[in-house]
């Protein structure tokens, strides 16, 4: 080996030393300085673990003066290498190796392989597997949807997929109570974040739901939201607090009367704003509430907006319209037109039905071609004339699988003080209201009944709901202090912590409260389906509120029939209202999305009956029941049906479920995580089937492995187990542990250079094979989603001694099982001899990969143009008829197609891993 002072060498025993400069040569010893680490090392010349650093044409080098060059030519002068290259001004510059920057990292597979920095064959295999999995996930139709810790429910996956794919989704999620709107919103947020379409998200909810949202986002989607409340804001340093976090959760009330805070939230800018229980936003044609105005301003400065409500018309059709207007002001600009359009939806649904039966309706809109297949016609009808792009609503009927609701009525005698005192309607319905003290507890028969009933139902958990906070507080106090019943109160006056403590006490299976006494507002949106007894201490004067109450228990996850107990005072407004809800609306047995509309329809006849029941009441009941039946039928056949068709297309949802199940089935993920743990030095212990305990070991490759705590983390690959065992992490391809570990592999050189031997029948010993793995590297803004059409697309090549391609003949997995490791000294000896041969094979591999790249890029561009082009033509056709399509969506799509094409055309190859194999 010829050493000369000034030459650059690298230590293959210790890659971290960086580049070494020969500073002294003695007869048997050689000294190198390693400037990057400020060390000098002396070696015996015969056994120095050194490899001459020779850059290649095409490599990027940098000099001590900070000049960056792309090498175009290399010559040797008196034993020193002279590199000629182009700098960033495209000027040609020649530098001697003396001038090279010592901090140079040898990271490319070729540099590492030729400089003797070998990885284990297992690490090489891990790198290849990582690239293949990453590429497959990028192209998966279930991207962003497979990682949630939820049951795979069709209606939710459909909506999440449909909405999550949109640029800047602006929709109203209006599934009936308890069908999982929070979960749908979580899936959409997760998908938008994972695919880079959104990075800043603001969620506004009622105070009682803050904690529930925080926990649901974390537990089900691994999304860490920061909860902003008055205390947190007070503690934050100067500056805009909303800019300090990307994912923020706070209550709408936080902004009430605080203009300055509103301005800060607006100034921070968001990609997606989510408003839960959106029916509370105040809007009427005469008066617009501060809350509505604030959300309207937020909506104007955020690309995406999700509004959630189970009872969109709870405050009437006008305010329902107002929320749609927030989503798409250019579409929903006039209430009267909107009302007229609503009438059309029913006719459209009837048309869709006839099409389904194979009949072309005479009144089919002119823009549809009756010769198209009926399925396509239905799609076009819904697409072009329905409300589906903005409004999603699934009903219990459509989702199915819900338990029964059973009503129990308890007539109680009217006590004298109430009979004498009642004046207005509110007091008739809630006779305890006027009492400033708790004296009503002594004579109101509902109190004694409540005490008795709770004792009879013991140990079953019972949720009690009443209209007012004061009633809830007094009742709970009584139950707790006087009746010895374990209870807690839950109402709007409590702090968030107190509320969560009360809910947790109620949820606690052992030693928790038997009953939780809630006020109307306090309990909205909460999950109490672990109980199946509901006591309605009074009844609200709005069917949608009653539906909200029942929905606390009658929601996804309810295992038993829901027992609804209603105590009421005989011959009172309560009895009349109960009769009307029960016999007029049949609301206790079946939810009714038109409850408020029916109430409005009969309001004028109903209210006087609540004051004083007359003989007319029976007729009112019959009329209401008939009207309800008709309305239910109409809805079933009309608007709801139309919405359902848009809110869940079974075939699409089936495919998503199938895709997720297939990604979860088998043991691919399990084996992959095991390989990751082996590579990074994480210990694995068997826990139970498809479940492991992971612990950091003493031989960790890096200081930390994502998601593995010091005391150990239990992980399961089974969805069912993941759902029932809160103490375990449910691992999917989208779990942060896997995503971050994949990033760790791909952002370092782990496994990118390896050497092994192989016995192959018929191949003479000493033959060289080069296995190379390339990916397609497309640098593009994440929001463009280019990887949907152009994923990493790993290209594997296996070049033999004569330059023949053997990749198909000897697949990677088979090669892995045959390759044997080589001891480092032998490997170094081999590599020194095959330098030039490797270069020659690399040139062949590069050429072949380039040819493949061209094919891949052409196909990707075609795919992209087909896919986005079809979407564009569909939207352009739609826009002619349906102003629900916003112009900016079209513009964005056109821009996106051209931008994607440019980025695809500029994609290049990246060599990801190289393995040299010698036959023995
Ligand atoms: N896919 C799912 N897998 C498991 N649990 C689910 C799923 N979807 C919903 N749930 C559970 O069902 C309950 C209802 O869901 P969620 O709170 O999202 O409903 P909602 O439609 O927002 O209700 P509300 O109308 O009361 O606001 C919650 O306890 C939720 O965790």
TrEMBL record:
<dbReference type="Pfam" id="PF00176">
    <property type="entry name" value="SNF2-rel_dom"/>
</dbReference>
<protein>
    <recommendedName>
        <fullName>RNA polymerase-associated protein RapA</fullName>
        <ecNumber>3.6.4.-</ecNumber>
    </recommendedName>
</protein>
<dbReference type="GO" id="GO:0005524">
    <property type="term" value="F:ATP binding"/>
</dbReference>
<comment type="subunit">
    <text>Interacts with the RNAP. Has a higher affinity for the core RNAP than for the holoenzyme. Its ATPase activity is stimulated by binding to RNAP.</text>
</comment>
<keyword id="KW-0238">DNA-binding</keyword>
<dbReference type="InterPro" id="IPR027417">
    <property type="entry name" value="P-loop_NTPase"/>
</dbReference>
<dbReference type="Pfam" id="PF00271">
    <property type="entry name" value="Helicase_C"/>
</dbReference>
<keyword id="KW-0067">ATP-binding</keyword>
<dbReference type="InterPro" id="IPR022737">
    <property type="entry name" value="RapA_C"/>
</dbReference>
<feature type="domain" description="Helicase ATP-binding">
    <location>
        <begin position="162"/>
        <end position="330"/>
    </location>
</feature>
<dbReference type="Pfam" id="PF18337">
    <property type="entry name" value="Tudor_RapA"/>
</dbReference>
<comment type="function">
    <text>Transcription regulator that activates transcription by stimulating RNA polymerase (RNAP) recycling in case of stress conditions such as supercoiled DNA or high salt concentrations. Probably acts by releasing the RNAP, when it is trapped or immobilized on tightly supercoiled DNA. Does not activate transcription on linear DNA. Probably not involved in DNA repair.</text>
</comment>
<dbReference type="InterPro" id="IPR000330">
    <property type="entry name" value="SNF2_N"/>
</dbReference>
<keyword id="KW-0547">Nucleotide-binding</keyword>
<feature type="binding site">
    <location>
        <begin position="175"/>
        <end position="182"/>
    </location>
    <ligand>
        <name>ATP</name>
    </ligand>
</feature>
<keyword id="KW-0347">Helicase</keyword>
<feature type="short sequence motif" description="DEAH box">
    <location>
        <begin position="276"/>
        <end position="279"/>
    </location>
</feature>
<comment type="similarity">
    <text>Belongs to the SNF2/RAD54 helicase family. RapA subfamily.</text>
</comment>
<keyword id="KW-0378">Hydrolase</keyword>
<dbReference type="GO" id="GO:0006355">
    <property type="term" value="P:regulation of DNA-templated transcription"/>
</dbReference>
<dbReference type="InterPro" id="IPR057342">
    <property type="entry name" value="DEXDc_RapA"/>
</dbReference>
<dbReference type="InterPro" id="IPR038718">
    <property type="entry name" value="SNF2-like_sf"/>
</dbReference>
<dbReference type="GO" id="GO:0004386">
    <property type="term" value="F:helicase activity"/>
</dbReference>
<keyword id="KW-0010">Activator</keyword>
<feature type="domain" description="Helicase C-terminal">
    <location>
        <begin position="449"/>
        <end position="618"/>
    </location>
</feature>
<dbReference type="InterPro" id="IPR049730">
    <property type="entry name" value="SNF2/RAD54-like_C"/>
</dbReference>
<dbReference type="InterPro" id="IPR023949">
    <property type="entry name" value="Helicase_RapA"/>
</dbReference>
<dbReference type="Pfam" id="PF18339">
    <property type="entry name" value="Tudor_1_RapA"/>
</dbReference>
<dbReference type="Pfam" id="PF12137">
    <property type="entry name" value="RapA_C"/>
</dbReference>
<dbReference type="InterPro" id="IPR040765">
    <property type="entry name" value="Tudor_1_RapA"/>
</dbReference>
<dbReference type="GO" id="GO:0003677">
    <property type="term" value="F:DNA binding"/>
</dbReference>
<dbReference type="GO" id="GO:0016817">
    <property type="term" value="F:hydrolase activity, acting on acid anhydrides"/>
</dbReference>
<dbReference type="InterPro" id="IPR001650">
    <property type="entry name" value="Helicase_C-like"/>
</dbReference>
<dbReference type="InterPro" id="IPR040766">
    <property type="entry name" value="Tudor_2_RapA"/>
</dbReference>
<keyword id="KW-0804">Transcription</keyword>
<dbReference type="InterPro" id="IPR014001">
    <property type="entry name" value="Helicase_ATP-bd"/>
</dbReference>
<keyword id="KW-0805">Transcription regulation</keyword>
């Amino acid at each position: 080996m010829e050493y000369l002072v000034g030459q650059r060498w690298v230590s293959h025993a210790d890659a971290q030393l960086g580049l070494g400069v020969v500073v002294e040569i003695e007869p048997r010893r050689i000294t190198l300085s390693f400037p990057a680490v400020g060390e000098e090392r002396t070696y015996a010349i015969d056994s120095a673990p050194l490899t001459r650093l020779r850059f290649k044409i095409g490599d990027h080098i940098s000099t001590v003066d900070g000049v960056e060059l792309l090498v175009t030519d290399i010559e040797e002068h008196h034993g020193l290498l002279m590199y000629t290259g182009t700098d960033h001004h495209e000027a040609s510059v020649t530098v001697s190796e003396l001038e090279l920057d010592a901090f140079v990292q040898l990271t490319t597979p070729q540099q590492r392989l030729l400089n003797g920095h070998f990885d284990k064959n297992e690490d090489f295999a891990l790198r290849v597997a990582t690239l293949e999995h990453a590429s497959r996930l990028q192209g998966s139709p279930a991207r962003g949807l497979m990682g949630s810790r939820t049951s795979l429910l069709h209606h939710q996956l459909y909506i999440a997929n449909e909405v999550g794919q949109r640029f800047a989704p602006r929709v109203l999620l209006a599934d009936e109570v308890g069908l999982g709107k929070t979960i749908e919103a979580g899936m959409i947020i997760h998908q938008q974040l994972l695919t880079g379409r959104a990075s800043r998200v603001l969620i506004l909810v009622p105070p009682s739901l803050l904690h529930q949202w925080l926990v649901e986002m974390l537990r089900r989607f691994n999304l860490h939201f920061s909860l902003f409340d008055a205390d947190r804001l007070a503690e934050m340093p100067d500056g805009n607090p909303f800019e300090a976090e990307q994912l923020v959760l706070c209550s709408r009330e936080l902004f009430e009367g605080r203009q300055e805070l509103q301005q800060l939230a607006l100034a921070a800018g968001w990609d997606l704003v989510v408003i839960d229980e959106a029916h509370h936003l105040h809007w009427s044609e005469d008066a617009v509430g501060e809350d509505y105005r604030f959300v309207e301003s937020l909506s104007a400065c955020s690309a995406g907006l999700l509004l959630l409500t189970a009872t969109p018309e709870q405050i009437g059709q006008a305010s329902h319209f107002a929320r749609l207007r927030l989503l798409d002001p250019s579409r929903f600009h006039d209430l009267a037109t909107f009302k007229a359009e609503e009438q059309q939806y029913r006719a459209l649904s009837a048309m869709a039905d006839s099409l389904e039966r194979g009949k072309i309706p005479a009144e089919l809109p002119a823009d549809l071609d009756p010769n198209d297949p009926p399925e396509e016609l239905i799609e076009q009808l819904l697409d072009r004339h329905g409300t589906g792009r903005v409004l999603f609503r699934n009903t219990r009927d459509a989702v199915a699988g819900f338990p029964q609701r059973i009503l129990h009525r308890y007539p109680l005698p009217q006590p004298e003080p109430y009979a004498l005192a009642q004046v207005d309607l509110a007091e008739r319905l809630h006779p305890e209201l006027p009492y400033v003290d708790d004296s009503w507890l002594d004579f109101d028969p509902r109190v004694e009944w409540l005490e008795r009933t709770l004792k009879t139902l013991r140990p079953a958990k019972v949720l009690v709901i009443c209209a007012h906070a004061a009633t809830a507080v007094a009742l709970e106090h009584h139950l707790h202090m006087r009746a010895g019943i374990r209870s807690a109160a839950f109402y709007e006056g409590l702090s968030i912590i107190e509320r969560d403590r009360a809910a947790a006490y109620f949820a606690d299976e052992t030693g928790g409260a038997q009953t939780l006494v809630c006020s109307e507002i306090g309990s909205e949106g909460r999950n109490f389906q672990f109980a199946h007894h509901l006591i309605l201490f009074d009844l609200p004067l709005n069917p949608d509120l009653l539906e909200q109450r029942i929905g606390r228990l009658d929601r996804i996850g309810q295992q038993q029939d829901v027992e609804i107990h209603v105590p009421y005072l005989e011959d009172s407004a309560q009895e009349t209202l109960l009769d009307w809800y029960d016999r007029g609306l049949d609301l206790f047995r079946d939810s009714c999305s038109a409850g408020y509309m029916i109430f409005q329809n009969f309001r004028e006849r109903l209210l006087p009956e609540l004051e004083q029941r007359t003989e007319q009441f029976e007729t009112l009941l019959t009329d209401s029941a008939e009207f309800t039946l008709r309305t239910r039928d109409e809805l079933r056949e009309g608007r709801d049906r139309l919405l359902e068709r848009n809110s869940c297309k079974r075939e699409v949802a089936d495919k998503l479920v199938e895709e997720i199940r297939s990604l979860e089935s088998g043991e691919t993920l399990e084996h992959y995580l095991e390989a990751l743990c082996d590579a990074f030095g994480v210990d694995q212990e068997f826990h139970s089937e498809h479940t492991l305990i992971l612990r950091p070991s003493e031989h960790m490759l890096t200081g930390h492995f994502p998601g593995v705590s010091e005391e150990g983390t239990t992980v399961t690959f089974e969805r069912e187990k993941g759902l029932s065992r809160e103490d375990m992490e449910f691992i999917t391809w989208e779990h942060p542990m896997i995503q971050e570990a994949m990033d760790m592999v791909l952002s370092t050189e782990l496994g990118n250079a390896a050497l092994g031997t192989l016995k192959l029948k018929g191949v003479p010993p000493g033959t060289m094979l080069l296995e190379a793995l390339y990916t397609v590297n497309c640098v593009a803004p994440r929001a463009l989603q280019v990887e949907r059409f152009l994923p990493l697309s790993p290209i594997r090549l296996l070049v033999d001694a004569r330059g023949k391609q053997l990749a198909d003949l000897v697949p990677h997995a088979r090669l892995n099982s045959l390759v044997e490791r080589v001891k480092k000294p032998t490997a170094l000896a081999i590599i020194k001899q095959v330098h030039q041969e490797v270069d020659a094979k690399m040139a062949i591999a590069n050429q072949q990969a380039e040819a493949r790249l061209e094919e891949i890029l052409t196909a990707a561009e075609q795919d992209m143009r087909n896919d986005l082009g079809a979407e564009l033509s569909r939207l352009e056709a739609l826009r002619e008829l349906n102003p629900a399509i916003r112009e900016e969506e079209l513009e964005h799509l056109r821009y996106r197609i051209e931008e994607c094409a440019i980025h695809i055309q500029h994609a290049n190859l990246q060599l990801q891993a190289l393995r040299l194999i010698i036959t023995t």
